[in-house]
Amino acid sequence: MNRAVVLFLRAPVMGRVKTRLAADVGEERALAVYRELLDITTKAMAGAGARSLCFLADGSVIPEVGLPDATWHHQQGNDLGERMHRAFQEAFAAGHDRVLLIGSDLPHMSPELLERAFGVLAERDAVLGPALDGGYYLLGLKRPHPLLFSDMPWSTDQVLALTRERLQAAGSTWGELEALRDVDDGDDLAAWEAEHR
Predict the structure, then answer these.
(1) pLDDT tops 90 at residue 64
(2) Per residue in 30-55, pLDDT tens?
(3) Closest Cα to residue 108, out of 47, 180, 50, 184?
(4) Structure pTM?
(5) What are phi and psi of 130, to 5 degrees?
(6) Angle ∠(111,113,115) on CA atoms, nearest 5
(7) Which domains does the chain have, with CATH numbers?
(8) In the predicted model, is pLDDT for residue 149 greater than 70?
(9) What is the pLDDT of residue 61?
(10) What is the Cα–Cα distance from 52 to 67, expressed in whole angstroms?
């Protein structure tokens, strides 16, 4: 199988996940939301027909996430960009030629969304899933692309625009999925909950 989905995640431990959300709704509620989002994400991955590579941010205990065939790795690097770049390198070195990287913050993650991303990647060099906060909830590549990860102002509203600029400067083709809201803080959570009322 040459398609892979790389998931960046943390072990679901109170006080160590969704810290921005916890500042708004408390650590217990933030942990419950994190578990729910992680469940949505892993169910989408299980239905995507791709190899699952899970990269833990911290801790040595592998959480139960419903992906029995996943391979487990530790994120390595000094910042988010370096950790993402190394994860892509590992996936390509393992023989995968279409690789999607996602986090566990998107309540709209689904097998269909991942399939659409792979479809874009079949035709283009890269695929982006724009987040409404100016970042992205998904990045897909066919080969390593170090410039996308170095000297990037992570966790700001500039990430998506700079990623587009760097893809264009490199002469890469890319496509984009629909822009969606991920859940980072209390406002995001309220917007998600309002959709389900």
Answers:
(1) no
(2) 999 999 999 999 999 999 999 999 99
(3) 180
(4) 0.96
(5) -70, 135
(6) 70
(7) 3-195 (3.90.550.10)
(8) yes
(9) 74
(10) 8
Lookup result for tokens 């279409």: 98
Residue with tokens 């906060």: 133
Paired residues of 131 in beta bridges: 180
Three-state SS annotation for the chain: CCEEEEEEECCCCCCCCCHHHHHHHCHHHHHHHHHHHHHHHHHHHHCCCCEEEEEECCCCCCCCCCCCCCEEEECCCCCHHHHHHHHHHHHHHCCCCEEEEECCCCCCCCHHHHHHHHHHHHHCCEEEEEECCCCEEEEEECCCCHHHCCCCCCCCCCHHHHHHHHHHHCCCCEEECCCECCCCCHHHHHHHHHHCC
